[in-house]
Amino acid sequence: MSSPTTHVHVPAGHGRTFEVRRGQFITVIDRDGQQAADFVAIVNGQANEYLSPTHTRRRLDSLFFSVGDCLYSNADEALLHVLHDTVGVHDANVPACDCTRFSVDFGVDGHRNCLDNMHDGLREYGVSAVNVPEPFNLFQNGPVTADCRMQVTDPISKAGDRVVFRALKDLVCAVSSCPQDIIPGNGLLVTPIDIVISDDQPPFA
Ligand SMILES: [Zn+2]
Fold first, then answer.
1. Interval between CA 140 and ligand 1 midpoint (Å)
2. How many CA atoms within 13 Å lie on the side-chain side of 173?
3. Nearest 5°: phi and psi at 7?
4. Structural domain count of the chain
5. What pLDDT score was predicted for residue 178?
6. CA 200 to ligand 1 centroid distance, Å
7. Does residue 205 lie within any of the structural domains?
8. Is residue 47 part of a domain?
């Protein structure tokens, strides 16, 4: 008999925070396609250890991750194992969008943003706004050119594309459906992200 699963719906342009236990599976689904999902995690009960793209890049000797890789913490501990990925294009190099990104770069005050979306739920775990970790930007398309230029353009993900991780420690995760609707990055249409947390490994179709 299979164990119960937990479903977390992240409304378009908003964020959600959830706990996972060591050994559980986290499936992050781009419900409608072309939607970036900023993803951060802290070790539950130990907010000074968190998922770190910087440390992961060094560990992997790569700017990007692939199936079979682990994602590491700022203490060089593996926190997530990448089990399945129907897209293969994600970003681990740029920060979450925040209020100044919109006010300074686009002249829009009070725009929803990933940093606030993730901080909203992490606050109760003792995480201050300036200590929200750098994200992995799932489904975000941030190619690096041969001459080392960085870009952000629309995701290649299609409706239902997903990434499956296994948690290697007890974690508190926060996910933001990126509200960027001014420049390419989400197909200029912000849509929801769905998350499934399960004890049993999900079937890989
Ligand atoms: Zn964003």
1. 10
2. 30
3. -110, 130
4. 1
5. 98
6. 31
7. no
8. yes
pLDDT for 46 equals 93
Written as one letter, the residue type at 186 is: N
Distance CA 41, CA 52 (A): 9
CA distance 108 to 117: 17
Cα–ligand 1 centroid distance for 118 (angstroms): 10
Predicted confidence at residue 4, as pLDDT, reads 82
Tell me how far the alpha carbon of residue 93 lies from the centroid of ligand 1, in angstroms. Answer: 13
CA of 146 to the centre of ligand 1 (A): 25
Is position 203 within any domain?
no
pLDDT one-digit tens code per residue, 29-54? 999 999 999 999 999 999 899 999 99
Tokens 């990933």 belong to which residue? 114
Residue 114 Cα to ligand 1 midpoint, Å, equals 4
Query: How remote is the CA of residue 181 from the centroid of ligand 1, in Å?
Result: 9
- Residue 70 CA to ligand 1 center (angstroms) comes to 23
Report how far ligand 1's centroid is from the alpha carbon of 180 (Å): 6
Give residue 179's domain range.
Answer: 5-198
Report pLDDT for 35: 98
Flag whether pLDDT at 199 surpasses 70: yes
pTM recorded for the entire structure:
0.96
**137 Cα–ligand 1 center, Å:** 8
Cβ contact 37:173 at 8 Å = no
Q: How far is the CA of 4 from the centre of ligand 1 (A)?
A: 31
> Is 135 domain-assigned?
yes
